[in-house]
Model the fold of this input.
Amino acid sequence: MFTVEIQAVNDRSLHAQGSAFVVLGENLLITNYHVISDSILEPDLFMVVVIDANGKHRDAKVRAVDVINDLAILSTEESIGRPLTIRQSIPSKGTKAFSLGNPGGLGLMVVEGIYNGLSESSYVPTIHFSGAINAGMSGGPTVDENGQVIGVNTASRRRDQLIGLLAPADRVTNLLNTFSTGLSQAPHSLKAQIEKQIVRHLDEMTRDLLIFPIEKVVSGGFTLPAIFHDQASCYGDLEKELGRRFLVAVRSCSLRGGIFVSQDLQLGTITVSHRRIYGDHLSARQVAYAQNQLSRSDVEDSGSPVKGKTEWLCRFATVILQSGLKGVLHACRRQLSDFAFANDHYYLFASRPKGNEGLLTEIKLKGITDVNAKKIINHFFNSISSDSPKESS
Done:
């Protein structure tokens, strides 16, 4: 087991810390991408240092990354230890396991827990480990009783107790199989790896979404797309505030597990929310007023400035959905300063009032390519319909 430190180039001060373990050769280590990410994105400012149990410091280089599964390969100039064995078979649920790492620089810690299979709420395959993975243990191994690696510590659920998350061992094997000892170590080459991996991931995710049979729900006079993927997390609610003459029925689904690129940037998240505004004694004019008030605040909120992203550019137009439902569509887009291949997209559709009800559908796409965003937006908006006949132009 080793400690990984990200240090400032100018004064060697500590910037970030994690763990690592030896694999394959005696000078190759596995850690988390998120532990060493700043050394790739800002190589003039940060460097990687590996520290053994005796306190010896060695400079290390990042040789390869798998940004999707939060993994990275490091190398040192000299041999530093014996490699751990990667388990080739999948453990049974309930298998006892042990997470290793260096939390907070306190030294080696071993946490006993249980392997509970893959998480059902993450698009990227992630193991659920019932053990406390603390800060600083990221990048360390979780092993079975024979000492074979079953996963790599990646994160913990802060709001829950004893829920740790691991990158599966087969993802480590895949990275090692594609790794070449002659691979360029230049930061620009590693950043190119990251961009290529993210674009491929976004393409695959979009294809999965388009073939998944959307589960639809009926809300008043509208039929709406709800569950759009097995790993989507959904909820429903009824908003009723004092002083309002209307109710708001809310349905929202999100695809979690965005890809960590930096502390300020996660890519590949999707949220689709519907709000049906209605009231027994509302007129169409009053519905339209309520929609206008709610949609205006949403569009304003979507324009909040974010580090590493440009300002929002927005436009709106009257549209007719495939079902014939008329409304106004607000479309906003902002670019990522360091990763021009992906953008944030925000869409808000406000239907024309139908009697005493109206619809607001909001779609948020974070870090999605323009081509895929267009496919996703059309997919969801074409799934919205109403029980009234198509309106004439």
